[in-house]
Write a structure and sequence with these properties.
Radius of gyration: 42 Å
Helix content: over 70%
CATH architecture of the largest domain: Orthogonal Bundle
Number of domains: 2
Number of strands: 4
Number of helices: 5
Shape: rod-shaped
Distance between the termini: 18 Å
CATH class of the largest domain: Mainly Alpha
Structural class: mainly alpha
Largest sheet: 4 strands, mixed
CATH topology of the largest domain: Helix Hairpins
C-alpha cells in the first residue's frame, strides 16, 4: 500500500476513534464494579451454604445422640422404678432387699450422670440449630443482594450495549466506501498494536505512540503527496497528516 485518497486517510481517524471508544466501552462492560461485588457475594454465599450444610449434618447427628441419651435415661429410670417397687413391697429376703437398696443407689447415680450427658447434648443441639438457622438466614440475605446487584449489572450492560450499537453504526458509516487496501492495512496494524492502527501527526509527535519524530522524517512526511500513506518510524502505525486533505 503506497497511496490512498487523502480524504480516506482523514476518515481513518474517525474509524480509529470509533474503535477506541468501542474498546473502552467493552472494557467498562467487562470490569463493571458491580461484577466484582457479585463475585465476592457469591463466594460468601457458598461459604454460608457450606456452613448451613455442615451444621445441618451436626444437627442430625446430635438429634440421634439426644434420642440415645433419652433412651438410656429412660432405661435406668424404669429399672430404678422396678427395684423401688420390689423394695417397697418388702416381699424379698433381707439380703435381696439390701442388694436392691445398693442397686438403687447405683441407679440413682447412673441416672444423674446420664441426665447430665443428655442436658449437655441438648445444649449442643440447640447451639447447632441456631448456627444452622443463622447460616441459612445469612445465605438467604446474600442471595437477595446478589439478585439485586445482578439487576443493576444487567441495566448497566444494556446501557453500554446501546452505546456500542451506536458506535458500531458510526463506524459503519465511516468505513462505507473507504479505500479497501487502506482499511485492510489499518486492520492489520490495529491487530498488531493494541487496537490502534492509525494516529494523527500533530506537529512532530505521533499521537499513536506519543513519541517525538525525527525532524528529517517529519520533513519527509510533510513534503509527501497528500495521497501517500506514511507510517510512524517509531511504532509503525499509519500517520494521518491533518492538513493533507
Amino acid at each position: 500500500m503506497a497511496t490512498a485518497p487523502a480524504a480516506d486517510q482523514q476518515r481513518l481517524l474517525t474509524v480509529q476513534d470509533a474503535d477506541t471508544r468501542a474498546h473502552q466501552a467493552q472494557h467498562r462492560r467487562a470490569t463493571l464494579p458491580v461484577i466484582a461485588r457479585i463475585e465476592e457475594l457469591q463466594s460468601r454465599a457458598l461459604d454460608f451454604d457450606d456452613e448451613r450444610i455442615a451444621r445441618g449434618t451436626e444437627v442430625t447427628d446430635l438429634k440421634r445422640e439426644v434420642a440415645k441419651a433419652e433412651d438410656d435415661v429412660e432405661a435406668v429410670r424404669a429399672r430404678a422404678k422396678r427395684d423401688q417397687e420390689r423394695l417397697d413391697s418388702g416381699q424379698s429376703s433381707a439380703k435381696d432387699l439390701q442388694a436392691l437398696q445398693s442397686e438403687l443407689e447405683v441407679l440413682v447415680k447412673r441416672q444423674a450422670d446420664l441426665e447430665d450427658v443428655e442436658l449437655e447434648v441438648m445444649e449442643r443441639l440447640d447451639q447447632a440449630e441456631k448456627a444452622q438457622a443463622s447460616a441459612a438466614a445469612q445465605h438467604q440475605a446474600i442471595t437477595e443482594q446478589i439478585a439485586q446487584l445482578q439487576g443493576e449489572r444487567a441495566a448497566a450492560e444494556a446501557e453500554i450495549d446501546a452505546e456500542l450499537a451506536t458506535i458500531a453504526s458510526e463506524r459503519a458509516a465511516a468505513v462505507d466506501g473507504l479505500d479497501a487496501d487502506l482499511l485492510a492495512l489499518y486492520e492489520k496494524i490495529r491487530a498488531q498494536h493494541g487496537g490502534v492502527g492509525a494516529a494523527a501527526l500533530t506537529g512532530t509527535t505521533c499521537e499513536g505512540c506519543h513519541m517525538p519524530l525525527n525532524p528529517v522524517d517529519v520533513a519527509r512526511f510533510t513534503a509527501a503527496p497528500p495521497d501517500q500513506v506514511v507510517r510512524c518510524e517509531e511504532c509503525g502505525r499509519i500517520l494521518v497528516r491533518k492538513g493533507a486533505a
